[in-house]
Amino acid sequence: MKPNVIREMSTGELKERFDEEKKHLQKLKLNHSVSPLENPMKIQLYRKTIARIKTELHNRAIEESKSNV
C-alpha cells in the first residue's frame, strides 16, 4: 500500500486496516512455517505496510496532542 493512499484514509479506516494486515501477516507466518510460501516476499510486504500504517497513526496522534495544547 502506498503512503499517499494511507494518508488519505481516516483514522478509523487505518485502525481497521491495521488489524486486518496484522491478522493476515500472522496467517502468512504460520503457513510459511508449515510449508514454504510461493512468494515469501509477501511477508516483508505486509510488515512494511503495517509499519507505514503505524507511522501514520503515530503522526496523527502527535498532531492531535499538539492541537489540544
Question: Would you write up a description of this structure?
Answer:
The protein is mostly helical. The chain contains three helices and no strands. It has a single domain, classed as Helix Hairpins (Orthogonal Bundle), CATH 1.10.287. Helix 2 runs antiparallel to helix 3 (41-68). The mean pLDDT is 95.
Task: Summarize the SSE layout with pairings.
Layout: H1 3-8, H2 11-34, H3 41-68
Helix pairs in contact: 2-3
Write a short abstract of this structure.
The protein is mainly α. It contains three helices and no strands.
How many runs of DSSP E, i.e. beta strands? 0
Q: What would you call the structural class?
A: mainly alpha
CATH architecture: Orthogonal Bundle
The number of helical segments is: 3
Q: Please, what is the oligomeric state? A: single chain
Low-pLDDT runs of 5+ residues are none
Features:
69 residues, mainly alpha, Helix Hairpins, 84% helix
